[in-house]
């Protein structure tokens, strides 16, 4: 095994004394005449593109990071996937390592081949301190990865409540809530509300609604209600309905959320969801009927307490004490 492989192995196993010994030889060789000895390449990369600095960032050992950076390791060196050491430190949630790399000049918005910046990884894995540190160093929370997801999308998808709250406190995410972060005509990609609803994250949904996200924003597949209903998230369906989501919105296939549940699901949860959606649809039908009579015959609504309004979903859609003719 050569010196470079020895260095990689020492860092990978967290062997600080061996790492220091190898790097000391590198420092000594710099004081000799060029060509007098084979110098250790501190930036040597293995078959996956991993350098010693990648390994140090991944293990979160700041002592190893420090000696490697002092030995002039390239702070933004990329592996085969375009991942820099800062990506790995953020992924692991190593705040001390992240800070050390940032102070050494690591690019806070460096992009991997998958389009991830370090903040994507910190947000997805719920690392609050690291996410906060990256934002303080001007990380852009609006950048999208190859799947058109922002750090906020990932925090909402994986239920990282504290990180989602942190990102929502940034002035830069206003555009995300308004749906302006992606191509205007591109309705194939989900909003943070869709992702949270699909995965049943009620606390995240509460945060998003409080922050002012458009509850009725639709993608090709429909609204967040479509997502929650299709994935069997009964309590989220209830939450969205109580928040006033429009139960009658149809997706690009002309399906309401109830249509989708009827067509694609047979679970026990779907039975409860169907009833919730039917009840909500019935309430809207009653309201529509009331609005109709308020306009055309206001006296028809002078009913006594205890009277009942029935909504019958048949060919004769509405029945009002059998006194409303079908038209």
From TrEMBL:
ANK repeat residue intervals: 48-80, 81-113, 114-146, 188-220, 220-252
Record protein name field: CASKIN2
InterPro entries listed in its UniProt record: ANKS1/Caskin, Ankyrin_rpt, Ankyrin_rpt-contain_sf, SH3-like_dom_sf
Cell inner membrane recorded as keyword: no
Coiled-coil spans in chain: none
Keywords annotated in UniProt: ANK repeat, Repeat
Gene name of the record: CASKIN2
Keyword Cell inner membrane: no
